[in-house]
Design a protein that fits this description.
Number of helices: 2
Order of helices and strands: HH
Largest sheet: none
Strand content: under 5%
């Protein structure tokens, strides 16, 4: 008893390729920015958090350096 494969592979015609995420047509530039802003909001959030960590790293490095210099100056003062 042989099973017949009923699935048929249909090749798309030239220029008729379908993608998983079909981007809509935009009427204005603001619609485009809003669409991509909402689509990539997680990525924007992660970039913002990464920039915040980088800023905090350099600010903390500067503050720590100033504290170390002040401590060093107080320790080497003559009595």
């Amino acid at each position: 008893m042989a099973f017949k494969d009923e699935t048929e592979i249909v090749e798309p015609e030239k220029g008729e390729y379908k993608y998983f995420d079909e981007t809509p047509e935009f009427k204005s530039a603001s619609e485009k920015y809003i669409y991509y802003g909402l689509k990539y909001k997680l990525e924007f959030l992660l970039v913002a958090i990464t920039l915040m960590f980088v800023f905090n790293f350099f600010l903390g490095k500067k503050v720590n350096s100033n504290l170390a210099v002040a401590f060093h100056q107080r320790c080497i003062e003559p009595l």
